[in-house]
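Help wanted!
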Amino acid sequence: MYTQALDTHGREPVPAPAAEGAATATRFQARIDADEKIEPKDWMPEAYRQTLIRQISQHAHSEIVGMLPEGNWISRAPSLRRKAVLIAKVQDEGGHGMYLYSAAETLGVARAQLVEQLLSGAAKYSSIFNYPTLTWADVGAIGWLVDGAAIMNQIPICRCSYGPYARAMVRICKEESFHQRQGFEIMLTLAQGSDAQHAMAQDALNRWWWPSIMMFGPPDGDSKHTAQSMAWKIKRFSNDELRQKFIDVTVPQAQFLGLTIPDPLLHWDEATQHFAIGPIDWSEFHAVLKGNGPCNRERLEARRAAHAAGAWVRDAAAAYAAKRGAQAHEGGKS
Amino acid sequence: MSAGSAAAVRRDRALGEALFRYVLRLADTSLVLGQRLGEWVGHAPVLEEDLGLANLALDLIGQARLLLTYAGEIEGKGRDEDALAYLRDAPEFLNLTLAEQPNGDFAHTIVRQWLIDAWQLEIYSDLAGSSDERLAAIAAKALKETRYHHRFSSGWLARLGDGTAESRGRTQAALDSLWRFTAELFAADEVDERMAAAGIAAPLVPAAERWSARVAADLGAATLALPAPQAHPWYGKRGVHTEHLGHLLGEMQHLQRTYPGVRW
Amino acid sequence: MSDPTTGAPAADWPLYEVFIRSRSGLEHKHVGSLHAADARMAVEHARDVYTRRQEGVSIWVVRSADIVASDPAEADALFEPARDKVYRHPTFYAIPDEVKNL
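Answered by r_m:
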C-alpha cells in the first residue's frame, strides 16, 4: 500500500545488461507466469531486484514513519483500553516495518543503507503520514481509512512473485484487520457520542478523506511503468482499480456512521454501479511528495533525532558484544 | 465485613482502606511507568527496541488495569479503572516517586526500569502467596511479565554499563541521579504493616535484602558502582510527589477532563 | 552516525534468522530476520517481533552468516535426480488389498 507506485512515477527501470541473455530472462518470466515464487539467491533481472528493493523499502519506511502520527496520541488516549490498543497497533506497525526491512535485506541491501536513505530524504514513504493528527478522532480516521486503504492494496501483494515479500505481506494482512476495526470502533463511538464528539469525528473525516484517496497513487494514465510491475507480478491491480474498490467499500461505512464525506460531487453511478467522486487535487499530492506537506519536515526530523540520539546506545551494545564474543549473554537452550 | 462489635467494624473498614491504598500503590506505579514508556514509541534507538519498550508498556498498563479495577471494587464507590486513572489529581496518586521521573536518555530509562523491575520481582513473588486471592492471581500473572522485564532491563544495564566509555558514563550518571528514589521502595509504613498483619503482603525487610543482593549482582555484571545511600525521603506512596507527576497527569487526563461524562 | 573515512552509514548489528516452533509437536519454521547485538538480545527481539500473538513456544535464532544454503544454480544437480526415483514413494508398489498392515 504505502508504495503508491512512487517508484514508477516517471522513472525508467534499469535496463538489463546484454550478458543476462534473452533465454535466462525468458525462463525467469516463465516461472513468474506459472505463479512460481522467486526466492532469495534465485537468478532475477537486475531491474526486478531494484524495483522490489525500492517498493519493499518504501513500504517499510512508511510503516516506521507511520508510528509517529499515531504515537502522538498514546500519552493522551482517553481510556486505558484505548491506550493499550493504540500501543499494540503502533507496535504492530513497527513490526511490519521489521518484516519488510527483513524481506528487502534478502535482496542484498543492508538495513543501515535503507535507514540512511530514509533519513537523508532520498527514499520516499507514503505521503499520508505527512499529515498531522490534531484530535483523538484522527486516530480513529487513520485506522478506518488509512489502514482500510492499506489492506486493499496489501491483500493482492500476498500473491506477489517474490517469496519473502509475499510471506511478509501475509503476516501483515493478518494483523492489519484489527487495526482497521480499532479505528472504525473509535469513529463509531465518537459519531454516536456527544455533539462535540460527533463534530470531532466529522472534522477528522473532512481532513483525512482526500489524502486517503490519494494513497492509491496517481491515476493509471499517469503511471508509465505499471505494465512491467504487473508482468513481474509485483503489482497485481492498478491504482484506479484499487481506489475505486476502496471508495465503494468505504462510502457505505461513512453512511452507517452518520458522517458526511467531504465531496459534494460524490454520488452513486447507476450506469457503472460504482460511487463516483469529484476531482482529486493532485497538486497537493505532488507537493507533499516533494517534501512540502504539513509534517514532512517534522517526521524526518523526529526519525533523525531518534537515530542520532540512539547512536551511542547501538555502539554500546556492539562494543559489549565484541568484548564478550558473539555468544554474549547466551539466550538459552531450544 | 463481619457483623458484631463496632471495633471489629472499624478494624475491617480500616483494613479495607489500607488495602485500597496498598493496591493503588501497585496500580499507580505500573500505570505511571507504563505511561512513561509509551512516550518512547517511535523514538527508540533502534526499531527492535521500539517494539521491546512498547511490550513493557503494554504489560504495565495491563497490570494497572487489573489493579485499578480491584481497587475500585475495594473502595466500593463505583469508580472503575478509567475513573481512577483519569479523574484523580496528583495528591491522590500513590505511585513510587521513581516511576514518575522523566525518561531522560536511554540510560535513564533503563536504570529506572531496572530498579522498579527488581522491586516488582520481590513484591509480586511475595504477593503470589497472598491471603488475598485476587491479589495473588494478579501477582502471579504479573510476575511472569516482570521476569521478562528484568531480563530485558538488566541485559541492557550490562550492555550500557560495560559497553563504551560514553555509555558507562551516562549509565552511572543515571544511577547516581535516580538512586535517591530507592529509599522509598521498601520503607514500611502503617499501610504495609496492616497488610503484613493480615497476611496480605509479606514483610518488607526480607524483600529489601533480596532486592539489594540482586541489585548488587546486576551492578557487578554491568561494572557500575553502587551509589552512596541518600537520606532525603520521598513519599510518592503517600501522595507527595515531584513536580513531574502533575505534567504527566495533565497530558494523560486532558481529554477526559475536557469532555467530562462521555464514552470513549 | 557515519563512518568518518568512507561516509557510509555505521554498520547494523548482525543479522539473525529466526525460527519459531508455534506449538509442541511441530518443527521450528523460518519466519524472518532481525538485527541484534548479541544472542540473548536476538532471542528477546524474536520474542517481541514474532510471538506477540501467541505464535510461539520455542525460538531459535541463528546468525545469518552461519546459515549454509544450497546454491539455486545447482538446483538441477541437487534435486532433479530425485524426480525419477519414484520407487521411494509408497504408492509405487502394488499390494493386493487382502494384505493388511502394509
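OP: Thanks! One thing I noticed: Residues 6-38 of chain B form the longest helix (33 residues).
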